[in-house]
Amino acid sequence: MMEFFVVTFAGIATVFDIKKRQIPNKLILCMFGTWLIILCVMLSIDISRAVMILIDSGLGLLIGGGIFMSVYLISKNGLGGGDVKFMAAAGLFLGLGSTLTSILLGSTLAAITGIVLIIFKKITRKDKMPLAPFLLIGILTTVFLV
Question: Which of 76, 122, 136, 145 has its CA 20 to 30 A from that of 95?
Answer without folding.
Answer: 76
